[in-house]
Amino acid sequence: MTSAGFLYSKGIVFYPADTPSISTFLESNPGAYTTTRTHNNSASLLFWDRHLQRLSNSVKILLTSNPQFLFKSLNSTINPLLIPPPPSNPMWESTIKSLVNESVNKVLPVALRETRNEGEELAVTALVTGNTEKLGEVKRNVFEALDVHVHVGSHVPHVFGVKGNGARVAVVGPGRNIAEAKYSDWVRLRKSLEKLRPPTVTELLLSNDGERILEGCVTNFFVVCRKDDRNEKYLGGNENTLPYEVQTAPIGDGVLPGVIRQLVIEVCLSKGIPFREVAPSWSEHEFWQEAFITSSLRIMQRVEKIQVPSSWLSLELKALEEISWEEKQFEEDPGMITALIQKEIMEKAGL
């Protein structure tokens, strides 16, 4: 859980009494953002370089194709075609990283001086927004029309592998638009799905048809699927090939390129764990041996139970209490593959 803490915005550091919660802050401000946390007693930011890379990509995507998600009150009086194009990749990435790091360094040392409870870390969110007022003055340098805000809150890290600490997930709604970018407006848009959250469910999953599962509202979703005769082409006739594969939806299907998602892929490739970018199909859930979700705050969390509506149309036609669900329960302990991947990622993080 994260709580209100410190905010750096427009050159000012705001203290807890004047700092909104992270969800309120993101709902109130457009832009591309990324969230990570400190680790090793706040010694460093977890996979920060990867977050900066993803953030620079998200800003560029919004700037070039969906500026309304970057600039507040962008309307017909502002022609998006007049927004200066971003420079070439090396300059773009290095400048965004520099702007973000400069802002982080204004507020993180202040937050670090505050007393924290034992076991607490800090959740750090960097938001890059478009400044509509400056936009009219910008000629060639688009960076002059960008502002960086940084929110820092306390965070208690998730403990992996503890019984009863698994995620309970439910498939409740369609995938995101512009899923390849992480943008703050999604915090507001996903609220409409809350009315479909079954009791005890801790994460909502997205699907466009109720069959192929894309991702979670704030996580990426994976299954460890047992192979059967229909998957013979993946066995390749090699008797030593492992009888399962890790599956997650590809970016092209409309999912966020999560930082931990990419690390899972890298671990699978380096350890020889069969992996396939394909949306897990609910019709094959009998072959699912394990499932887990990933995010930069929780790293990895095994799935304890998944629910899918018996009728996809019922989500639109019925109230929550009238919807019937199909369920799959997983083992109480993390599966072998989930535990192996988690161990490797934690080692990469130095945890």
Give the CA-CA distance, first to last residue.
19 Å
Largest sheet: 9 strands, mixed
Beta-strand percentage range: 25-35%
**Class by helix and strand content?**
alpha+beta
Can you write the helix and strand succession as a string? Answer: EEHEEHHEHEEHEEEHEHEEEHEH
* Helix percent band: 25-40%
Uncertain regions: pLDDT < 50 for 5+ in a row? 230-240
Report the principal-axis shape. globular
Q: How many distinct helices?
A: 9
Over all CA atoms, what is the radius of gyration? 21 Å
- How many strand elements? 15
Mean pLDDT: 89
Protein name: Class IV aminotransferase
GO molecular function: catalytic activity
InterPro entries: Aminotrans_IV, Aminotransferase-like, BCAT-like_C, BCAT-like_N
Pfam families: Aminotran_4 (PF01063)
Set out the fold topology.
Elements: E1 6-9, E2 12-14, H1 22-28, E3 32-39, E4 44-45, H2 48-65, H3 89-112, E5 121-130, H4 132-135, E6 146-155, E7 167-173, H5 185-189, E8 203-207, E9 213-216, E10 220-226, H6 232-235, E11 244-248, H7 259-271, E12 275-277, E13 288-295, E14 299-309, H8 314-317, E15 325-329, H9 336-349
Helix pairs in contact: 2-3, 7-9
Organism: Salix udensis
GO molecular function: catalytic activity
Protein name: Class IV aminotransferase
What do these coordinates show?
With 351 residues, the protein is α+β, with helices and mostly antiparallel strands. Helix content is 26%, strand content 26%. The chain contains nine helices and 15 strands. It has helices spanning 22-28, 48-65, 89-112, 132-135, 185-189, 232-235, 259-271, 314-317, 336-349; strands spanning 6-9, 12-14, 32-39, 44-45, 121-130, 146-155, 167-173, 203-207, 213-216, 220-226, 244-248, 275-277, 288-295, 299-309, 325-329. Strands 7, 8, 9, 10, 11, 12, 13, 14 and 15 form a nine-stranded mixed beta sheet that branches. Strands 2-1-6-5-3-4 form a six-stranded antiparallel beta sheet, with helices on both faces. Strand 8 and strand 9 (213-216) form a beta hairpin. Residues 230-240 have low confidence and may be disordered.
